[in-house]
């Protein structure tokens, strides 16, 4: 007996806006479109799903979805060009990371990050 995968589900108001952000901006692959839910594959494993029938509980400090990349600055520039309002990229010495935060169309906190070691 073993676990074969994981999907993290969040509520949303607009699957189209979610798709623009997660597939269009982040480049995640759409794994399954279930009409009122969409599930995206995350490279290196796992999936994230958004459903219009689930409540949206954004605007707090958690949850945070962190996406790992070596191209933090490129994603930051892309976010600005698309009219998003990302935080300025910075080094967090406590955790040994280079990162920035922005919000997705539903207000969930998204972190774009790379490990420095």
**Arrangement of strands in the largest sheet:** 1-4-3-2
Q: What is the CATH topology? A: 2,3-Dihydroxybiphenyl 1,2-Dioxygenase, domain 1
In angstroms, what is the radius of gyration? 14 Å
Helix-strand sequence: EHEEEEHEEE
Considering DSSP H and I runs of 4 or more, what fraction of the residues is helical?
A: 10-25%
Mean pLDDT: 91
Q: Low-confidence runs (pLDDT<50, min 5 residues)?
A: none
| Total number of strands | 8
Name of the CATH superfamily: 2,3-Dihydroxybiphenyl 1,2-Dioxygenase, domain 1
Can you summarize the main beta sheet? 4 strands, mixed
Our count of domains comes out at 1
Shape: globular
Protein name: Glyoxalase/bleomycin resistance protein
Organism: Mesotoga infera
Question: What's the arrangement of secondary structure elements?
Answer:
Layout: E1 7-11, H1 15-25, E2 29-33, E3 37-41, E4 47-51, E5 64-68, H2 72-81, E6 90-92, E7 97-103, E8 109-115
Parallel strand pairs: 1-4, 5-8
Antiparallel strand pairs: 2-3, 3-4, 6-7, 7-8
List its salient traits.
2,3-Dihydroxybiphenyl 1,2-Dioxygenase, domain 1, single chain, alpha/beta, 117 residues, globular, 4-stranded mixed sheet
């Amino acid at each position: 007996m073993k676990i074969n995968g994981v999907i993290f589900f969040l509520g949303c108001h607009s699957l189209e806006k979610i798709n623009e952000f997660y597939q269009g901006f982040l480049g995640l692959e759409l794994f399954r479109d279930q009409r009122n839910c969409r599930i995206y594959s995350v490279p290196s494993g796992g999936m994230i799903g958004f459903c219009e029938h689930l409540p949206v509980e954004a605007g707090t400090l958690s949850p945070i979805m962190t996406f790992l990349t070596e191209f933090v600055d490129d994603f930051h520039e892309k976010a600005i060009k698309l009219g998003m309002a990302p935080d300025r990229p910075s080094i967090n010495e406590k955790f040994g990371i280079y990162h920035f935060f922005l919000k997705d169309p539903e207000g969930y906190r998204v972190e774009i990050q790379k490990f420095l070691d």
